[in-house]
Structures are given as structure tokens and as C-alpha cells.
Amino acid sequence: MSPDMSRVLRKIHDASYASEAWPEALRTLTDALGVPGAACIVVNKQTRGADWVCFSGLSERFQSRYVDRLVKLDPFTPLLNVEFRRMKVSECFSLPFLRRDEWYTDFILNCGVRDILACCLMERPSHVAVFCVHQQIGRFFRDETASVMEQLALPLRSAMQRHVDRLFAPSGHPSEQPTARAAQYYFHVDGVAEYHDDCGNRFKSGESRCARIRSCCGALTIRRLGGLLDPRGPMTTDP
Known about the structure:
This protein is an alpha+beta fold and about 240 residues long.
């Protein structure tokens, strides 16, 4: 794992525990990807408004314009309803459509953005959260951009779930207590699996994974997938 990617993961982890850390996380991410901008958007499914946004780079100064008016005209975000499926604006809409679309002409092009690569991080009855990176006019996404986004999907999803829990807890007071969950994401360091659980623990294969997590989170449910802990799997207990 490159030093840049390790730093990105640390910043994403910080953002999962502190809302004010999201701008720095996105700046670090865009630097590592070599793209000029990124955004995280939490849309209220009832009002179709943006309940929380964090824009970085080219679109940052247009953030209030998007929140105040253009979020409800955005034809792209509603398409991102499949978790981890990456989509590009340029592949979803024809050029004639985009030239007539107010969201694209008044917001995207004014930001200096040519194309957007995005995915859904999470969806709940009340909210949907999406993550996207921007490419400026005159340039194209590199082939490896989508691959890196895929590596970051699980850490971003974990961070966004905790963030949304903190913002929109039913009681109005986000819980600070760790929940009984499996490891939320994983990555590799020099061929050795390294995991982060939902309580902030970091550990590598060969350690007592379950003992480490249980000591913090209590009982949990996980399964193995090729020797890794898969947070998406059926609810079975790893011995």
C-alpha cells in the first residue's frame, strides 16, 4: 500500500468520528487520486433536499448554490441507488441532454467540471449518501481511478454510516457507544490482511481477530471470505 493511500485511509477513519474532518479527508483523497475535486452528499429522500454536503476542489465555492436550488434538479444522484456500482455522468446521459440540462450547465460546467464518477455509499428509508470525484474540462479520468475508488468504497461506507448515525440519530443525540458489528472494512499491507473494526481497532491477520473485536464490541457476527472478514456476509459467527 502506498504512503498516499495509507494517509487517505487514516483521514477517512478520522472523518468517521468527527464531522469536521471530512473536508481534509476529501482533499487528501483527491490529491491521491490526482483529480481536481470530490463531494459527499446526503440527500433526504422525503424532501429531495441535501441534508449534508461536503464539496472539495473545483465545486467547493458552488456548494451553497447546489444545496439551495440545484440538488432538486440533479438528474444524476437519483440514479446512484445501487451500492458500490460506479457510474459516470458521461455514460448516463447524452451530450444533447446535458447541453439542455440546467443542473449540468449552471452547476457542473460552471465549476469547471467535465465529468463525474460516483457511487452510492449507503441508502436508508430516510436518506441516501453518495460519493463522487470530479474531472475538469479538457481532461479524462485515468484508468486506475475507478479501481482506487473500489478499494476505498468500504472505508468510505463505514465512515458515512457512522457519520449519518451521528447526524440523524432518532433521539437527536447521536450514540457514542460502539455497536456489535463485524469489521467494517479491510485492506492489504504487503500481502498481509489488515482490518479496522467499527471501534477504531487496527489489527493484522495472524492476530486473534475475534478476541480483539469482542473485547471492544461484545458479541458480533462475521464470516470469512478468502481469509478476510467480509462485512457484507450472512450472519454467522467466526470461531
